[in-house]
Design brief:
Blueprint lengths: L1 H24 L7 H4 L9 H19 L31 H10 L19 H15 L2
The chain binds heme C.
Heme C binds next to helix 3 and helix 4.
C-alpha cells in the first residue's frame, strides 16, 4: 500500500511538472515558406489603416490591448499570454508572412484563434492584410 501511494504521489508531481514545462516550452509555429515569402500587398494608406483599425477594435483589442501591449481586457486569465506588438523590436523581427500566417491559421493550443477564410470570423485576405498594416503602423517600436 505504502509504495503504491508514494508512486501515486510521484506520478502526480510528474504530471504537475509536465504541465508547467509544457506552458514554458510553448513555441508559436513558424509559418511555412509559402507564407514567409509573402509581402503585404496593400500600402498603408489612410483607408487601409482605418479599415484595419476597425477590425483590430472588434477582433483583436480584447487580447492584444488598445496600445498593442498584450494587456487587453481578456488577456489576464489566459495561460499563454497574447504577444505585445509594442514590445521593442517585436514587429521589426517578424515578417509580414509570419504575422499573416498566425492571423489566418491561429496558434494551436493557445487562445489565438484562426481568423482567415472558413473560420468563424471569416476575414478575407485583404482584411487580414489591413489589420496587419494597422498593427505595424500603430504599434511598431
Ligand atoms: C482571445 C485572445 C486573442 C485575440 C482576440 C487575438 N489574439 Fe492574437 N494572440 C493571442 C495569443 C494568446 C497569442 C500568443 C500565441 C502564441 O504564443 O503562440 C497571440 C499571438 C498573435 C500573433 C503573433 C504571431 C507570432 O508569430 O508571434 C499575431 C500576429 C496575432 N496574435 C494577431 C492577432 C490579430 C490580427 C488578431 C485580431 C484579428 C488577434 N491576434 C486576436 C491571443 C489573441
Amino acid at each position: 500500500m505504502k509504495t503504491r501511494s508514494i508512486a501515486a504521489i510521484a506520478a502526480s508531481i510528474g504530471l504537475l511538472m509536465g504541465g508547467v514545462a509544457l506552458a514554458e516550452e510553448h513555441k508559436t509555429p513558424v509559418a511555412p515558406q509559402s507564407y514567409l515569402d509573402m509581402k503585404n500587398p496593400l500600402k498603408d494608406t489612410k483607408a487601409v489603416v482605418e479599415n484595419g483599425g476597425k477590425i483590430y477594435e472588434k477582433k483583436c483589442k480584447k487580447c492584444h490591448g488598445e496600445k498593442g501591449d498584450g494587456k487587453g481586457s481578456a488577456a489576464g486569465t489566459l495561460d499563454i499570454k497574447p504577444v505585445a506588438f509594442s514590445a521593442p523590436g517585436f514587429l521589426k523581427g517578424k515578417s509580414d508572412g509570419q504575422l499573416f500566417f498566425i492571423t489566418d491559421k491561429g496558434s494551436p493550443d493557445t487562445d489565438m484563434d484562426d481568423f482567415g477564410p472558413g473560420s468563424s470570423s471569416n476575414l478575407s485576405a485583404d482584411d487580414m492584410w489591413s489589420v496587419i498594416a494597422y498593427i505595424r503602423k500603430t504599434f511598431t517600436k
